[in-house]
TrEMBL record, chains A, B:
Pfam families: Aminotran_1_2, GntR. Residues 11-79 form the HTH gntR-type domain. It comes from Ornithinibacillus hominis. Coiled coil: none annotated. In the C-terminal section; belongs to the class-I pyridoxal-phosphate-dependent aminotransferase family. Its cofactor is pyridoxal 5'-phosphate. The lineage of its organism: Bacteria, Bacillati, Bacillota, Bacilli, Bacillales. This is PLP-dependent aminotransferase family protein.
Length: 473, 473
């Protein structure tokens, strides 16, 4: 919001707020049924006391513009302004409720919302702290980039040829031999999953996954009507898959390197065994490898590197390593798959940002990216040790965890099932934001996905203290 | 494709091509059922004679690796390599055919494909010629941009606050009064349509449109199961809409400024009449205004500017004016709509490129964008006159058209129904690419969407000559 009350106006602050809210309703910005921001949020935005906001809202309620719904907040009333002025407004709320795509879980919407606020301590955020981003280097690169007018027009369906050639070379290091025409540039790994969902699977197909799973916190497959089946990778894997798959189309989604949220890292043997089972059963694999570069020790080869039958759809991204704001990722897959996904991408958004692609191409080909990675891994390792030290000192009696092998996360398990939505909300009130385990596995009330990548050392320390306090209460 | 045969190898060119294709099949890149590129394309890519390619392909056919399907091309055979080596490969073709999203029309796939080739003359392309893009200015801006580390992380759901504030100010000039929280940044106008389709409409909703329509050349609504109904805006509009809508959810999609493909521009009266009818019937409007800045004379106010009931979803973009490679557009709409679309956008791709957003923000706020627009309109006007002159001299007897009022297009109508797929394909053989009218209205065989924005003057001249020749045959 842009508006703030004017302290030098002849109107009181409360009157100004009332007028402003009325004008939002009048203009149709806040249509019937809109949930308005909380008093707390408005007070913060307007930089005024919460009691002033409350008085303004009470006045608007009394006049019939707003109404409270028990336990859920304040809404623009049905019989408000519009009725008075005999206006008809579309009932957007009804449109929204009957439409196709699932809303995000409420907890995740809250996370997205509160992440925007400066004073909040983010203990779970799956991204690099601003201070770990190579902002200055990227700024330097921007100065060196010379643009080709042809490259900043509408893109070819698969994305920049230059970037795809550079990636072919880059991916060799993880054992992947491929060609530019077997690569599709996407706007982040998440978009790759979205394209696969609508472009390669019939409704009702099975998507196998392990539990907990990142896929439960977003829902590209669920929103397209796929059936998610969670299984564990034990020695009965082949039998389990055979029994569950029957004659249905299926895919197996996995994160073999530094799994989100557990941080688990598959050994070579586990990778080979898994590949062979899926190959035998003709179950294609989505290998989501966005954390590949962040293993503290050198990473085992990608599953894709064993793939001689076009079984693996391989996904990478620079979101976790360079900058999520670039929105650049890639898929490596057999030609018909790439052509199909590229066709749908063209229908969806006509390609990814040419500028972002140019920046990534420059970063990788100049070697700056790899230099940055070496430093980044060190910094992450220091941060991991810092948090592990705090855990060791203060959480040992109530929780367990595994030492981090890389990436961002520690999958902290409390002995007791204390991690529920109430805890999440109580922490927000104390300006601490966590990623509770139930986002990744609905019935899990034991885990928190701790991230040592985002918050500052002081914040990590303070946030963990507040967490501990609330849990011990 | 990256590979080229080596002229100094001990193997013949033909042998090298055979080996290369075999290795593609072996690695699973070209899986069973993959349609391989045409001989013509391969010859061009490899920079060899077509007859050499043909010999290589004949050899692979004889050995059972490839097979021809009558009139459709050459495919990786079922009983190939894989069978020989007893490998199982996923049948991706089957996956693709049964999946959810519609493929692009074949003609549009061909357009996307041939647009990538350098020697082709593009008579229909809906984008600015590389020489009209302010590439140097953007390069200069890149040097001046100072990045904020916080801005290049994962984005807030609605996109950069800075850009949204700048847009609020920018949109005032077209009569639109709005707030940053009523704006969503999207990856181009096309993505806005996609988000609206899955986020605001129940399956089977009606999307009204005029004919011909840009929406027939992409299908965000069709792929989500909406029913497209085409109607004309005459004085019976209200009755027609009332009869057709019944109790169904519906939206009206329109392009009131420089319509694609006709170039038609609605007067103020038409805009007001249309708005009032839709308001009375409670039919929300999607106002797609991506050509707004390109009207040669000053544009009439946006329909959104009359909107006091939250009835209009307003869409803009910099693709047609600054650079399509930025992939930046916006939606202005009531709060619940924006929140809903932002939520789905987060689930789809976690936001648009922060770098692109920064570039657009810099361009608009520095005034460079408006400066560029003044020059651009002049250049487009000169190009329009150039093409109109050619039409006047050579096409007068066989076709009609209206003088362009701005934008990119002339909607050229041939007296006879000559614009069929055969003509499209014959023109490709002569290296000329057109956008035939049937992309925008299936049964239309009279029109071509000529674009004077892309090809050079020489190309426009030559391309139109070839077109004339073929049509007169
Ligand atoms: C396993 C995994 N896959 C994909 C993504 C999405 O990454 P991107 O920003 O490239 O879309 C994430 C980030 O949260 C992730 O953890
Ligand atoms: C009317 C119309 N709307 C939307 C688009 C898509 O624009 P963008 O590149 O912003 O997605 C186009 C471009 O072809 C168009 O002509």
């Amino acid at each position: 919001m842009d508006w703030k009350p004017n302290r030098h106006s002849h109107l009181t602050i409360q009157e100004q707020i009332v007028d402003w809210i009325k004008s939002r309703i009048e203009q149709g910005d806040w249509s019937v049924g809109t949930k308005i921001p909380t008093q707390r949020q408005l007070a913060m935005e307007f930089n005024v006391n919460r009691s002033t906001v409350q008085l303004a809202i009470d006045e608007l309620k009394a006049d019939g513009f707003l109404e409270s719904k028990m336990g859920s907040g304040v809404y623009v009333a049905n019989n408000s302004w519009n009725a008075l002025l005999n206006r008809s407004q579309p009932n957007w709320q009804q449109h929204i409720e009957s439409s196709i795509h699932k809303p995000n879980y409420h907890t995740i919407q809250l996370i997205n919302e509160y992440e925007q606020m400066d004073q909040i301590i983010r203990l779970g955020t799956g991204e690099l702290s601003p201070e770990l981003l190579p902002t200055k280097q990227i700024e330097q690169s921007l100065k060196k980039i010379s643009l080709d007018s042809k490259e900043i027009g509408y893109s070819s369906p698969q994305g920049s040829g230059k970037l795809r050639r550079i990636l072919c070379n880059y991916l060799k290091k993880r054992g992947i031999q491929t060609n530019p025409e077997n690569i599709l540039i996407v706007s982040g790994a998440l978009q790759a999953l979205q394209l696969i969902a609508v472009g390669l699977l019939e409704e009702g197909s099975i998507v196998f996954q392990e539990l907990p799973s990142y896929l439960n916190s977003v829902h590209p497959f669920q929103s397209s009507g796929m059936q998610m089946i969670s299984i564990s990778r034990d020695k009965h894997l082949a039998d389990t898959l055979r029994t569950l798959k029957r004659n249905r189309q299926s895919l197996f989604y996995c994160v073999p390197t530094l799994h989100n949220p557990t941080g688990y890292n598959w050994s070579i043997e586990e990778r080979k065994y898994f590949y062979n089972v899926c190959k035998e059963l003709n179950i294609p694999i989505i290998e989501d490898d966005v954390y590949h570069e962040l293993l503290f020790e050198s990473p085992p080869p990608a599953i894709k590197s064993f793939d001689i039958s076009g079984q693996v759809l391989y996904i990478g991204s620079v979101s976790k390593t360079l900058s999520p704001g670039l929105r650049i990722g890639w898929v490596v897959a057999p030609t018909p798959v790439i052509r199909r996904l590229a066709d749908i991408k063209m229908q969806t958004d006509y390609g990814s940002s040419a500028f972002s692609q140019e920046i990534v191409a420059h970063g990788i080909s100049s070697g700056l990216y790899e230099k940055h990675l070496i430093k980044l891994r060190k910094q992450l390792k220091t941060r991991a040790s810092f948090v592990e030290e705090i855990l060791e000192q203060r959480f040992k009696k109530i929780a367990t965890w595994k030492k981090s092998e890389g990436g961002f996360y520690i999958w902290l398990r409390f002995h007791k099932p204390v991690v529920n939505k109430a805890l999440f909300l109580k922490l927000i009130k104390k300006n601490v934001l966590i990623n509770p385990g139930y986002i990744y596995e609905t019935r899990d009330l034991h885990h928190i996905r701790l991230s040592y990548a985002y918050a500052s050392f002081e914040e990590l320390n303070e946030g963990l203290n507040i967490l501990l306090e609330l849990i011990q209460q």
